[in-house]
Design a protein that fits this description.
rod-shaped, mainly alpha, 2 helices
């Protein structure tokens, strides 16, 4: 375990694909929250509905990247065991 300069344990770094997927998932979640507040305010613009659908697909794609990265990590660990 790494120790930060302040003496607290540091958070392990994610691999680049996982970090990118996590960032994409957070972005998709933010877009859904923004669209949900617009819909709740009565904005029924079709672009808002399309934004929700697009964010849903983006979130699912990034979740698949996370899953695949985990599977690859497990395969690598199995080969090294």
């Amino acid at each position: 375990m790494d120790i930060s300069p302040t003496g607290a344990p540091s958070i392990p770094m994610l691999a680049q694909p996982q970090a990118n997927a996590l960032e994409g998932m957070a972005d998709a979640q933010a877009r859904v929250q923004d669209a949900a507040s617009q819909l709740a305010a009565g904005n029924l613009n079709p672009a808002v509905v399309v934004s929700v659908t697009s964010a849903q697909m983006d979130f699912a794609a990034n979740a698949k990247v996370m899953q695949t990265a985990q599977e690859n990590t497990n395969r690598l660990l199995d080969m090294l065991a």
